From TrEMBL, chains A, B:
Its main location: cytoplasm. One of its GO terms (biological process) is formaldehyde catabolic process. The lineage of its organism: Eukaryota, Fungi, Fungi incertae sedis, Mucoromycota, Mortierellomycotina. Gene3D superfamilies: alpha/beta hydrolase (3.40.50.1820). PANTHER family: S-FORMYLGLUTATHIONE HYDROLASE (PTHR10061). This is S-formylglutathione hydrolase. Signal peptide: none annotated. GO terms for molecular function: carboxylic ester hydrolase activity; S-formylglutathione hydrolase activity. It comes from Podila minutissima.
Length: 295, 295
């Protein structure tokens, strides 16, 4: 469970560092970026952490470089972990052929179908292995964790949160895929990763299905508030994200008051949208993590 | 002097748009990004502008995507223009061969030597043509302009400012090349662009030489304050940037009080450094531009 420093830059008083490590979950070398605030770097204070999950076509770099989150996180002394979005450099020849499956398209699930089932265990990687890795090697207190994500990473953040509600204080998302099992992206990727449509198997990797499942069993935490920002000019809104259907679903489930879903007028799907509102998301997480604003 | 919209995203209440246009100066199609704040977009208010010049290996995208400047500029209702760093798609075969000359390495000068002298007129492009282009086509008041840059772009910002002191309210730079004619980068590029070393010709493209020239003729504006941030862990500091020599020079010239040169402990040469301090630079420009902080 050792990690190797690839690069490190001072950033907002702390450091933005890239690490590589050999992952047991994905059976390959993974990279992640981490922002450690000043107190974690200088006095080895163990700080709370927000996992920031990227979307399709992203690596560990996009959110770290373009998201603008460290500015605000530094003021709360919160760490940010930016994982990669898939295994890399595997033996799977077709992994680089399509932007919706394979490299940069891990969907934060555990694949069960060949040739993906050896490496594409991104759920285990993000939910289980990575917290151990950062807790063991970095000045991060993983008992104070939360999770956010963008698009496919929003699907990842919400589904991982729902399955591990005691491991994360809260969750938020930008333009999340709220029903991977009915999204055209998911309809392409899920058969390859999980086999032909099986409501139980696919539903276990679908935010809406998971939420219905946990609410129906009274297993959705009542103290959690979920923040979602969605641009109205997002070209994927109508066909891929299921935002409007989800809003109806949470009303029917009687949990609409636990969701703050903000339609941001005129914004699209990209990082110019994320960076505009990321400060609100950091504030949302800081509150749940019990972090105080300094300066 | 028409421009074509390539892409546009809402960003901090305004828009981050990319335009293309056929440049007379560089005889090719150029791209630039521009951040227009809300008032310029919604009520066509003509707003002040800061030109943000990128460094070697950059395009018009790096500063716009990673610099983090729009967050603060939006609060002052200031526009940001992010030009490309060189001509593109020319007939010059060797333009893509080396990172210090050719594409992404225009050095903000007017080349006089073949094969560069047809297209590599980045000084004319930035100092003369681009202000006309943005004034004609966008809701920008170029009578309230200022200029900043990073590395090679810091050299560009300072040298263009010095030669056009009445066109820009102020100037600032991150890790600027302060003596292009003695920097190893410049020693590689300047012979190709300008011919063998000629103190007058090369000096006209060297910040330190230009400053001495204008100060000695009492032509350096006494009301201007220059802000420069320099990381102490910048790997290019010792060999390429001439920062320490420049500090001695401005003392000898008796103008040290017009320069705020801040050594930022532990920071390197990249955008994680820039984004950390860009807010201070926007504040510096806003003051000179007479812009007021809203919200």
């Amino acid at each position: 469970m050792t990690i190797t420093l690839v690069s490190s830059s001072k950033h907002f008083g702390g450091t933005l560092a890239k690490y590589s490590h050999v992952s047991k979950a994905t059976q390959c070398t993974m990279h992640f970026n981490v922002f450690l605030p000043k107190s974690a770097v200088e006095s080895k204070a163990r700080v709370p952490v927000i996992y920031c999950l990227g979307g399709l076509t992203s690596t560990e770099d996009n959110f770290a470089q373009k998201g603008g989150a460290a500015s605000r996180a530094s003021k709360y002394e919160i760490a940010l972990v930016f994982p990669d979005t898939s295994p890399r450099n595997t033996d799977v020849a077709e992994a680089g052929e399509n932007s919706s499956v394979g490299y940069s398209a891990g969907f934060y699930l555990n694949a069960t179908q060949a040739p993906w089932d050896k490496n594409w265990k991104m759920y285990d990687y993000i939910a289980k292995e990575l917290p151990e890795v950062v807790s063991t090697n970095l000045s991060i207190d993983t008992t104070r964790s939360s999770i956010m994500g963008h698009s496919m990473g929003g699907h990842g953040a919400l589904s991982i949160f729902l399955k591990n509600q005691n491991n994360y204080k809260t969750v938020s998302a930008f333009a999340p895929i709220l029903s991977a099992s009915t999204s055209p992206w998911g309809l392409f990727a899920l058969p390859k990763y999980l086999g032909p449509h099986d409501p139980a198997v696919w539903g276990d990797n679908d935010v809406t299905h998971l939420l219905k499942h946990y609410v129906s069993r009274n297993l959705f935490r009542k103290d959690v508030k979920v923040l979602i920002d969605q641009g109205t000019e997002d070209g994927f809104l109508k066909e891929h994200l299921y935002t409007h259907g989800f809003i109806n679903d949470i009303k029917e489930l009687g949990i609409a008051d636990q969701f703050e879903i903000r339609f941001q007028d005129g914004y699209d799907h990209g990082y110019f949208f994320i960076s505009t509102f990321v400060e609100d998301h950091i504030d949302h997480h800081a509150k749940a993590l019990g972090a105080t604003l300094h300066q």
